[in-house]
Amino acid sequence: MKVFVLNMRREPLMPITHRKARILLTLGKAKVYKNAPFTIQLMYATEEAKQDDSNSSATRINKTTALSEKILAKDIIEFDDVKEMLTTHRDYHRDAGKASGSATIYELDTNRKDG
To answer: Which of 14, 19, 42, 107 could make an SS bond with 103 (beta carbons 3.0 to 4.6 A apart)?
Structure first.
């Protein structure tokens, strides 16, 4: 389980493990803020680097989605006769077994002699 963490101004930070929380409490670098859910508050100032919007995950996802849509739009090949292609493919594989001289499962089962 993770432990919730607040900075000195009671703003939420990333959760940490129980072990890390226990160490911070033992060293006096944190105090218990709430028991349910278990939350600690740091007693020292932390550097809080703000992430700019141009590098946020939402922006990266949108750029990636736009790029993949461009790639997919170029690579799409339309098949008007899909049913005919599947039928031809199935017939080819059905006939290939007969041409090779190998027996199908059905033929093996019917040729079996019951003793």
So the answer is: 107
